Amino acid sequence: MTAAAATGTLAATVGTPAVNFVIFAFFVVLTLAIAISAAGTNRSTTDYYAGGRAFTGWQNGIAIGGDYLSAASFLGIAGIIALSGYDGFLYSVGFLVGWLFVLMLVSEPFRNTGRYTVADVLDLRLKAVPVRAAAALSTLTISLFYLLAQMAGAGALVSLLLGVSNSAGQDIIVAVVGLLMIFYVLVGGMKGTTYVQIVKATILAAGAAVTTIWVLSKAGFSLSALLHHAAASSAAGKAVLGPGLEYGANTVSKFDFISLAIALVFGTAGLPHVLMRLYTVPNAREARRSVVWTIWVVGLFYLCTLVLGFGAMWLVGGKQILAAPGGGDSAVPLLAFKLGGTLLLGIVAAVAFATILAVVAGLTITASACFAHDVYAGVLRGGEAEPGEEVRVARITAVVIGAVAVVGGIYAKGINVAFLVGLAFAIAASANLPSILYSLFWPRFTARGALWSIYGGLISSVGLIIFSPVVSGQAHPAPGATASLITDPHINFAFFPLNNPGIVSIPLAFFLGWLGTVTDRQPADSARFARMQVRALTGVGAERGGRS
Amino acid sequence: MVPNQSGRGSVTSTTTTQSAQSARGSASGYEAVRASRDFWTLRRRFGSFVVPACALFITWYFLFVIIAVFAPGFMRTSVFGDINVGLCFGALQFVSTFAIAVSYRRWAQRRLDPLSGRLRQRLEGGRRQ
């Protein structure tokens, strides 16, 4: 690929923002209309937090897929495959396999024993205000991390797709994303947000499928031929078809990948915005069905990203991807332009933009519900708040979170998106998952064990990230590695060698939950466990959904 | 992680009051259901599928990760054309995930739902009286 051709493509990308803008505007108007029409039916607290529990399994399954397939998956994973080949595929396997935990261990008991938030489940079992506060803190931390990851991606993406290259223009667009998202959440509540997710996931799946078939047709519908062409056009040659290009450099990077793999497989079952969606269906059976739907959506989508990634490696080429703004994240947009010109690029751009909007809205509603329901009503008011007051607090919180996300997104511009999401998974697996599983299945579990596990997991995972190369010590990274947040080479407090803390913090959180429980002088409450277990497995006393 | 141990803690007077308040007097109903034969069967059935299935997919997944990290040469072995062992192994992870998900859904619908429905009716019917 010559420099002139590369410049030509980029100039063309910048030259068609009008088309991209029209498609963006169409999507924004469509989703705003959905949010406004959902607003009329938002009456009760359950409407606002859980969409009236009226969604069917397949609707919710697609919406969960929409929440899960963030910009990091769509652009990030395809980008890693386009640049490092097979190693990106390892990422997507981890992102998919973890869903089996959600399906078999979490979805049904969770729907049966909680009402709106993660902390509800722990509260039914342990009845302790400090546990609710701890669970709320971990939900808020995970949501903010994830939110920051999405907003960080928005700036880079928009600069590529709308041709807004100056910094002030990008900031304005990040602010517009924030305002739109606040509007969806305030007006549409969980119901509006869910419909936006369904629309987005459908467009995303359709866009990915069309582009995948297009790429395959160029290779004569032979996967082997596609891989052959991709390897031939890569600087690394056949090495891209096997593992090790990104993670195989040395022992540290190998263990870093194992740590990431642990975080991905255990993290999904601890993500608060995914768990909260389980409450939007009428009963546990629909919750189970929705997770099976999600597994199909997510799995087929990741198989498409494999083709898209190798397709971009072949048709666009690594050099041009690295040269584009956004680096690896630009692989799919560039591939779309190469294949279908301005129109397909516009569609892919709109899908990516929609993805960020929808995921940010989903995270905002989760964080605001958590603050209003757990912190305000549960902890500050001791469970005495009026339902109307709670929703009012949730709406105010959504505005505050939106503002924080905008400011954070402006400052976090340019940080690798897939990477930040991997960290959010590690925090979710450490701070949330152990106490959820112990509460549901371990009769002896006590409030003390829950506090040790939540705070231990939260502090160890966040702490290890602070003292890792993510924050300091990697001012001039090797090609392919990510630079630290602190780029001053004189500041280095990275004593933890791995980027992902999962390999330490997840076992530690499970261990602390056990230790805190067995050293507790207070015996476990067997009546509460009996109630928890009977409710978890039979659904007695769970709020039914729908208006039928 | 397995719901088959019995509660070993003793019920103190304070906790009885608490659960009596929040469960509206049906705490003894829950304990009775928990001690019933149907519930025991439900718990055992749930564990008998979920525990081996989780153990299987976790082992299978980490086998994939460990081989990818420590034996990349094996993963690059060609199967046919440019399709290598690593790609087939990865694809099989997808296939196994789909297969476990679908078979769990079918199995749960057939073996768990009727039983849990019966228990639910018994408890909720008792409450309405």
Can you give a write-up of this model?
The complex is a heterodimer of chains A (548) and B (129). By secondary structure, chain A is mainly α. Chain A has a single domain, classed as Sodium/glucose cotransporter, CATH 1.20.1730.10. Chain A is 75% helix and 0% strand. Chain A has 22 helices and no strands. In chain A, helix 9 (129-161) packs parallel to helix 20 (447-466) and helix 10 (167-218) crosses helix 17. Chain A is globular. The model of chain A is unreliable at 1-15 (pLDDT under 50). With 129 residues, chain B is mainly alpha-helical. Chain B has one domain. In chain B, helix 3 packs antiparallel against helix 5 (85-128). The radius of gyration of chain B is 23 Å and the shape is elongated. Chain B has helices at residues 13-22, 27-35, 37-70, 72-75, 85-128; strands at residues 78-80, 83-84. Residues 1-25 of chain B have low confidence and may be disordered. In chain B, 78% of the residues lie in helices and 4% in strands. The interface between A and B is large, with 68 and 70 residues.
Q: Please report the two chains with the greatest interface, counting residues with C-beta closer than 8 angstroms to the partner's C-beta.
A: A-B, 68 and 70 residues
Q: How many strands of chain A?
A: 0
Briefly note the structural class of the backbone of chain B.
mainly alpha
Strand content of chain A: under 5%
User: How many domains of chain B?
Assistant: 1
**Architecture of chain A, according to CATH?**
Up-down Bundle
Oligomeric composition of the shown chains: heterodimer
Q: Describe the main β-sheet of chain A briefly.
A: none
Rg of chain B to the nearest angstrom?
Answer: 23 Å
Helix content of chain A: over 70%
Largest sheet of chain B: 2 strands, antiparallel
